[in-house]
Structure of Ferrous iron transport protein B:
Amino acid sequence: MKDIRILLAGNPNVGKTTLFNSLCGVHQHTGNYPGVTVEIKEGKRQINDHSLFVSDLPGTYSLSAFTPDEQVARDALLTSNPDAVVQIVDATNIERNLFLTTQLMEIGLPMVIALNMSDLADEQKITIDAECLEKNLKIPVVRIVARNGEGIEKLVDTIIRVTEKKTPVDYKKIEYPHSVTTHIAEIGNYLSSHVSLLGKLSPHYAAIRLMEGDEHLEKMLHDQGLVIPFIDKCDPAERDGIAEDILLARYRTSEEVTTCAVKCSMGAVMPADLIDQVLTHRLFGIPIFLSCMWFAFQITFSASNPFLVGIEYLFGIFTEMMNGVEMDPFIRSFLADGVIGGVGSVLVFVPSIFVMFILLSILEDTGYLARAAFVMDRFMHSVGLHGKSFIPFLIGFGCNVPAIMATRTLQSKADRIITIITIPFMSCAARLPVYVLFAGVFFGAAAGNVIFFLYVLGIAVAIISAMIFRRFVFRDEPSPFIMELPPYRKPSGLAAAVHMWYKGKEYLKRAGIVIFGGVLVVWALATFPVGVEYGSVDSLAGILGQVFQPLFAPLGFNWQLVVGLIFGFVAKEVVVGSLGTLYGGEEMLESSLAADPTLSPVIALAYMVFVLLYFPCVAAFGVIRQELGNWKWTCIAVGWGILVAYIVAFITLHVGSLFIGA
Ligand SMILES: Nc1nc2c(ncn2[C@@H]2O[C@H](COP(=O)(O)OP(=O)(O)OP(=O)(O)O)[C@@H](O)[C@H]2O)c(=O)[nH]1
Ligand SMILES: [Mg+2]
């Protein structure tokens, strides 16, 4: 049995994670835009007597690493000493991808190139002579289509073969100008007597990195008291010139190799440019995007309706069956109010969440998302946000947790902090049940519009918050927007379905554990002390709600709503779950809410607004703390959310009552 550790490296959006999923039989998130993966994911595949340990890295254009996610990739490549590096190369864009190859080759690790997206290259009539590529670079090249698994077996065989080779690697040399080569040799020689300080880097490669301007390595060597020949003597202008020479040599190499290996027949002009002109139009871009989102929410609300009715029907049957069975009233109350009432009221919204995930996944896979980011950039800049923040925001509609992590693609610290503080205003899928319930009960046919309004409100609050923070805290300008527009790709129905299923399953798992636990606690609080009427003001839940209710009296919330908010800190799904428990069961929930004299459409609206803005959930809180790295900003982020929620809900109540009556 032999263990083999490999790293999957490559430019962003070339299909690394798709290959990873197919190699390891897992389902990590993929999407057609750069920066989907921001931290290393580990997986394993067993092949006969080999265990292949695979790490999927964030995408990177070079090893110079400007953003936190690129740094993660660079550090893994330079310090983790894997048995092989597999570079995934996008066959439709070889020259740019080979630039990274010229850097990876010099690290000196065994390498394999996986020529991915070969199906698209064929479609675009790009013919690649893999043999010529292989001969030229002296690196094995395997043609694959990660999305359907084509060529993966051959790739695995090749990986095993290169790791078993005993001879040192001997790749194509990059032809630097003579002056550069002499300095590299001089520095390399000097560093050979200090190899212990270089970690896993060879002296020759360390010399190249220093010449390219690796400040991190330079500082580390200086900290050890080393005086580096040439580097320490030359002036910044000269160093910039050398770094540029190295860059040019790399570009020349990638161009040369591409010219020899790639034949493009001039196929029909892709309509992509034309489509882009419309979708990213100065005037129409934003309305097109908003209409897309509006349709998405209408579909989410209406498409899930038949399922909703079905699930409600099933729960109705359960309740009836239970009514026919003799049992202890205590257990009956537990099953009827706690389990069916609480968990059931959350489960009925699962279809909406499934539909929402499938729409988001289709948007991600077509490449439209990156266009939307581009369209929004000018606007985002004007309000003090970075165009790239837009993608974390959109991911936030699914779940805030990965969205907060996705801010790692932002280069500037200020941009990251502002984005992290504002992401929780993006309404995640777990908040949807609250809207579907309240909008359905209090706004009837206008429910879809109310939900759309809430999502837009979340975005508006995020924008205003960003403006405030940019104006008063971080005065610098957001850094400029650089993001590659991915090509349009046909979304794979299967991939979208798989994505939906896994996301939905995660939600169900949470429903099973967190929500069930939360609902159980609410049921107990509503039942005890023994002898009180279930869910009445005398129960523990009633007492708890009443203690905090005065705080929310200006917002018009009754004590049941307040209990929902308290439990909503754990997870938003628990809000509806606990209301279901308190209002006497899932079947009763809607009619009880409608009949409750302490509630009205405008209070319901204020409540939805509060739920949208106040606090994401404990899981998101944990990630905010992790990504911001300190308590001060974490507390500011959370405190800001609660303050804003209170103010906006208050305004909603008072302004709303002018329009829709109190
Ligand atoms: N047609 C086609 N599409 C592919 C193939 N491999 C991946 N894709 C699609 O390309 C997009 C990007 O795939 P990912 O696996 O997320 O790319 P990545 O390299 O991990 O991207 P980052 O994590 O952002 O660096 C997704 O929409 C995939 O469905 C392929 O072989 N053929
Ligand atoms: Mg990825």
